[in-house]
Amino acid sequence: MNSVRRSAEFMGNDKGFTLIELMIAVAIIGILASIAAGFFGLYMMKSKQSEAKELLSSIYTAESVYFAEKSTYDLPSVAGFAPSSPPRFYTNIGDANFSFTATSFTASCSTNLDTDAALDAWVVTDISRQPVNTFNDIL
After folding, report:
1. Could you give the CA distance from residue 84 to residue 88 in angstroms, rounded to a whole number?
2. N or C, where is the chain less crowded by C-beta within 10 Å?
3. What are residue 138's DSSP bridge partners?
4. What is the domain count for the chain?
5. Cross-strand partners of 110
6. Is residue 116 situated within a structural domain?
7. How far apart are CA 12 and CA 19, in angstroms?
8. How many Cα atoms sit within 13 Å of 11 on the Cβ side?
9. For the chain, what is the radius of gyration of the CA atoms?
10. What's the domain range around 130?
11. What per-residue confidence (pLDDT) applies to 7?
12. Per-residue pLDDT of the chain (139 residues; tens, 9 = 90+)
């Protein structure tokens, strides 16, 4: 009789989760994680674009200073442009992607941020001051 009473007391004292409740919680966490992973990838690519902005802004500054001193534009290497650290993504920057006349210049850089064939391209000119994303590869 004591054992029957103890087992009845034990069954009425549920303090835990059922397997189904745990499976539902894990499924919800998995769905939320997959949504967050998509946004994380987008933010990672946007952070890579900041490298292009920084590099082209540096070229703009170097060329502006050079023009103030010499009244003409020249290649970025002549104007004193040097990246603060080696570019990781936008490696095609510098003299090869730069065109100028005595009174204007255009600098550009591009890279493939993802696995498709499209390139992410940026341009800065003597007029624009702010780098412009001419083709956005992350949309």
Report:
1. 12
2. N
3. none
4. 1
5. 121
6. yes
7. 18
8. 6
9. 29
10. 50-135
11. 54
12. 555 555 555 555 667 889 999 999 999 999 999 888 878 888 888 888 999 999 999 999 999 999 999 999 999 999 999 988 899 999 888 899 999 999 999 999 999 888 788 899 999 999 988 999 999 888 6
Q: What is the pTM of this model?
A: 0.73
CA atoms within 13 A on the CB side of 17: 8
Q: Please report whether residue 35 resides in a domain.
A: no
Inside any domain, residue 118: yes
Residue 80's alpha-carbon distances to 75, 77, 101, in angstroms, are 9, 5, 17
CB atoms within 10 A of CB 110: 21
